[in-house]
Each structure stands twice: as C-alpha cells, then as structure tokens.
C-alpha cells in the first residue's frame, strides 16, 4: 500500500481513538449526542476494517456471542403479537448488537494505544461524572427551592429535557466512577492526586446517598471490596474505608435513608396497596413472575409480549402493580420471559465466559465493573433503558477487548506517577 494511504489510515485510527476517549465523557452528553457518537465510532471502525482488515483484531467469536441476545430478541419478533412494543424494545437495545460488533473489529493500533494510556480514559470518566453531578446540583439549586432528598431524584428524571436521567442510572454511573478511582488509587504516587480522587469519590458517594438507590450502593461495596483486596493497595483501602464510613453514617443517622435500607430487613409487611415498600413490591412482582415463568419455556413470550403477560398477572393478583406497570425488577427473569431458557442460558454463559477470560488475565478492574452490572441486574432491568444497556455493553465489550490481550507475565502493578498518566503513557495495567 502507498505510504500516503498508510498515513491516511493512521490519521483515521487516531480519530477513532479520540472518539473512544470522548465516549468516556458520555455522562456529560445529552441523549441524542451519545447516539451520534456511537454511530460515528461504529462507522469509523467498519470503514477501517473494510479498508484494511489485517489491521483489525477480528474477534468474530465475541462479535457473534456478544450480539446473540439481541439476535434472539429479533427472532422472537416472529412470535410476538405486540409488534409496536417489540420494535421499541429492539431500538432501545440496539447497543447489544452494535457495540459487540465494533469492539470486535477495532484496529490493533487503537487497542494498543488505549492500553498505553488507559488511566487517561478513567480520569476522563471520573471527572465527567463529577461534573455532571455538580451541574445537576447547580440547576436544582437555581430553579427549585425544595427539600433536596425529597425532590432531587424527581427533577433529574423529569425536568432536565435531553439530560433526563433516572436516578438508578445516575447512581450506577457514580459507582463505576468510584471503581475507576480505586483502580487509579492503586497506581498513583502523588499525594495531591490521591486527594483529588478521594474528593471526587466523596462527592459522587454523597449524590448516591441523595438518590437513595440501594442496589448500586450495595453492589459498589461488594465489587469495591473485591477490587481493593485484589490490588492489596493501602491507598485504595483507605479510600474504601472512608466511603463505606460515609455510607454507614448516613444510613444510620439520616431518617429517610435509614428507612430505605431498613426495608431490606422487612419483607413480611404489606404486599398490596399503595403503601408497599420497594422490597415488598419486588416480592409481589416475583410472585407473578413465578406464576407465568413455566409457560415461557424454551423460547419465551417474545420481546414485545413478556410485559403484557406480566400485566395480566398483576391485574389478577395485585392491581397496584398493574397501575404502575412495573417490570420484573430482575434482568435475568426479564430475559427468561422474553426469550425463554435459551435466551437466559445464552446470556449467563456469555457473562461467565467473559469473567473467566478476564480472570485468566487478572483484569481485576474489568471483572469488578462487569460484576457490578451483573449484581445490579438482580434488582433492576438495566438492559431495557438506553442509559443502562449502552454503558453496560460499552464497558463490558470494550474492556474485554482491551484487557484480553494481556498475559500475566506482562502485567505490572507498580505505582505510576499521575503526571505520566495524564500526559503520555501509563504503566501497564493488571
């Protein structure tokens, strides 16, 4: 190939690298901008692949396995009666198809550059999440003279236009940012960098307590414990202790937060009517799921009909659930109802395979992030909203491709200087 063509390809690969860096600012971007960004990344990757396929990683196995759930959803449209809902769900879940494909075709040079500058990506995401929270807070203070704990979650969910974000996803973004912080804390030597990361992590933790979402907090503590002790780093342990101490103090001494977490210990209360706790709502939902699950069988009710079947059960057993149209509040159950045992087993096997491969490479950060999302799936349907499925797919499949090429001998856990992390190159990660 002529040298001019090679230089052109190099420039396009640098452009793709920049787009992937920008993707770590997604919490700051409005909903439509994230979709445009994802489209640009996919189009650029495909262009590079068709132009010079020998420069791409060509992980066809993960491309097929990663998009298998979406393909099964598409097949289920053939026996779905509610086609309107089915097509809407397919549109929402498009990231489950696009991201495994483009991540499996990324240029080798781009992957290697991400590896060399990995900490920069994490810094970008942490700062983006922190700025997002501060911006939301400033908007709230300027326009609403109401109780913070009572109304802030509603405002960010309803009154921010293209920036509307359900509190559960705000908490999830914050939790992932804190996991990234623990990774960086295990690497950095500068005291000022340690202080900055701790400060941003505390800000994020405070907002997680403001929106009072139990699932992300509990999942964060579990995965952070794994990450911190995997690296056995004193700074990260101090950070985890500080954040856990903050969580415990607020849970004990703030009445509303205390009530929310106390629900976890009381599942024998009211299971019908308007005053059900979130825990008892889930108990009632799971009761209906258990009733209709046997008929889902191997293939499920279809991506468009699963919710309708659930609503029929609600109307018969608990009209309050039907009134608010609750989903299963468990992603694994939702997949089973949509595409049956075949779909659920496919998804679970895929996740176990990814975790197994990451464990062989001692990719502890990737394991923690993927495990965090999987733990959330036991209490939320995060793959059924764009703010959930996009981030899950992006971090799972991009991190898989970035980490999978490392072998144990090439992994280094030597602390690095933050100046190097933010400028040119990072130490190799484990």
From TrEMBL:
Its main location: membrane. It comes from the Bacteria. InterPro entries: O-antigen_ligase-rel_domated, WaaL-like. GO terms for cellular component: membrane. The keyword Transmembrane helix applies. It comes from Nonlabens ponticola. PANTHER family: EXOQ-LIKE PROTEIN, TEICHURONIC ACID BIOSYNTHESIS PROTEIN TUAE. The chain crosses the membrane at residues 12-29, 35-50, 62-80, 92-110, 122-146, 166-185, 192-210, 216-231, 236-254, 335-356, 363-382, 388-403. Residues 215-348 form the O-antigen ligase-related domain. The keyword Ribonucleoprotein does not apply. It is a multi-pass membrane protein. It is found in: Membrane. Keywords: Membrane, Transmembrane, Transmembrane helix. It holds the Pfam family Wzy_C. This is O-antigen ligase-related domain-containing protein.
């Amino acid at each position: 190939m002529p040298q001019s063509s090679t230089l052109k390809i190099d420039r396009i690969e640098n452009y793709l690298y920049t787009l992937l860096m920008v993707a770590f600012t997604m919490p700051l971007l409005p909903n439509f901008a994230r979709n445009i960004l994802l489209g640009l990344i996919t189009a650029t990757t495909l262009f590079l692949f068709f132009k010079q396929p020998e420069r791409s990683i060509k992980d066809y196995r993960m491309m097929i396995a990663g998009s298998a759930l979406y393909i099964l959803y598409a097949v289920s449209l053939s026996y779905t009666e509610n086609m309107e809902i089915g097509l809407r769900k397919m549109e929402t879940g498009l990231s489950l198809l696009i991201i495994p494909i483009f991540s499996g075709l990324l240029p080798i040079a781009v992957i290697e550059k991400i590896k060399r500058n990995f900490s920069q990506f994490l810094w970008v995401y942490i700062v983006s999440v922190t700025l997002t929270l501060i911006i939301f807070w400033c908007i709230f203070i300027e326009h609403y003279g109401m109780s913070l704990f009572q109304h802030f979650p509603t405002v960010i969910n309803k009154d921010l236009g293209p920036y509307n974000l359900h509190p559960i996803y705000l908490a999830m973004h914050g939790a992932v940012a804190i996991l990234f912080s623990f990774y960086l804390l295990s690497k950095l030597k500068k005291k000022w960098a340690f202080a900055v990361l701790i400060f941003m992590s505390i800000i994020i933790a405070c907002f997680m307590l403001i929106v009072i979402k139990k699932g992300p907090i509990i999942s964060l503590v579990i995965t952070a414990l794994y990450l911190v002790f995997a690296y056995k780093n004193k700074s990260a342990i101090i950070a985890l202790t500080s954040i856990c101490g903050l969580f415990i103090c607020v849970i004990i001494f703030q009445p509303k937060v205390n009530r929310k977490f106390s629900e976890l210990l009381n599942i024998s209360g009211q299971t019908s009517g308007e005053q059900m706790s979130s825990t008892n709502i889930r108990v009632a939902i799971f009761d209906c799921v258990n009733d209709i699950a046997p008929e889902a069988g191997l293939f499920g009710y279809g991506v468009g009909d699963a919710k309708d079947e659930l609503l029929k059960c609600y109307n018969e057993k608990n009209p309050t659930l039907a009134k608010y149209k609750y989903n299963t509040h468990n992603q694994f159950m939702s997949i089973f109802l949509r595409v049956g045992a075949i779909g659920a087993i496919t998804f679970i096997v895929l996740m176990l395979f990814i975790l197994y491969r990451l464990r062989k490479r001692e990719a502890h950060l990737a394991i923690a992030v993927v495990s965090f999302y999987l733990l959330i799936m036991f209490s939320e349907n995060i793959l059924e909203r764009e703010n959930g499925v996009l981030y899950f797919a992006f971090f799972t499949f991009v991190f898989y491709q970035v980490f999978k090429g490392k072998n144990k001998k090439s992994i280094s856990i030597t602390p690095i200087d933050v100046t190097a992390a933010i400028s040119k190159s990072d130490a190799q990660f484990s």
